[in-house]
């Protein structure tokens, strides 16, 4: 369980996602702009929760206990460990640190640097989810199955504690 903070989703990313939602809905720019921005932000959050990893690269601060053993960082995929103890990133994008003292580790994690670099399947799933949320804002309905199908290849789940030699 993570003890720390994740930098918020950059507003430019939410705006880009809102543009994709707007295009899918064939809405004119400015028409229902606030609502479209809101559902795009929610869709991005749902995608990150479903996939179990950050979509857009952001800075994460995580408190770790002091240990000479390698400890796995909670958020993935890790791009770089910026500060805090001895760090390494494995080929799966999992970050590892070890330190003699409890401290806060700062690192950068995420699949893509911006909306344009996001894998097309994830971006399209975000647009479909945002359009679904927009169209069904007054009713509780099941999201389209296509969304899960688009996001499933990017889903990461931890079933046990990771170990590093």
Structure description:
The chain has 165 residues and is of the alpha+beta class. The protein has one domain. The protein contains 4 helices and 7 strands, in the order βααββββββαα. It has helices at residues 11-25, 33-51, 120-135, 145-151; strands at 4-6, 58-64, 67-72, 78-83, 86-89, 95-99, 103-109. Strand 5 (86-89) and strand 6 (95-99) form a beta hairpin. Helix 1 (11-25) packs across helix 3, helix 2 packs across helix 3 (120-135) and helix 3 packs antiparallel against helix 4. The protein starts with a strand and ends in a 14-residue tail after the last helix.
* CA-atom Rg in angstroms: 18 Å
Shape verdict: elongated
Task: Pick out the low-confidence regions.
Answer: none
Count of individual beta strands:
7
What labels describe this entry?
4 helices; three-stranded antiparallel sheet; alpha+beta; 165 residues; elongated
Kindly summarize this structure in a few lines.
This protein has one domain (4-154).
Chain-wise SSE layout:
Elements: E1 4-6, H1 11-25, H2 33-51, E2 58-64, E3 67-72, E4 78-83, E5 86-89, E6 95-99, E7 103-109, H3 120-135, H4 145-151
Antiparallel strand pairs: 1-2, 2-7, 3-6, 4-7, 5-6
């Amino acid at each position: 369980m993570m003890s720390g903070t994740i930098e918020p989703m950059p507003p430019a990313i939410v705006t880009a996602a809102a543009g994709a939602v707007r295009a899918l809905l064939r809405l004119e720019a400015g028409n229902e702009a606030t609502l479209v921005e809101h559902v795009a932000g929610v869709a991005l959050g749902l995608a990150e929760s479903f996939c179990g990893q950050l979509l857009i690269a952001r800075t994460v601060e995580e408190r770790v206990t002091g240990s000479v053993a390698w400890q796995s960082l909670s958020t993935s995929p890790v791009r770089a460990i910026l500060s805090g103890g001895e760090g390494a990133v494995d080929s799966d994008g999992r970050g590892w640190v070890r330190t003699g003292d409890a401290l806060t580790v700062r690192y950068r994690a995420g699949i893509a640097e911006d909306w344009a670099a996001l894998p097309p399947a994830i971006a399209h799933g975000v647009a479909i989810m945002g359009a679904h949320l927009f169209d069904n804002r007054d009713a509780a309905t099941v999201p389209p199955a296509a969304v899960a199908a688009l996001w499933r290849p990017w889903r990461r789940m931890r079933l046990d504690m990771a170990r590093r030699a």
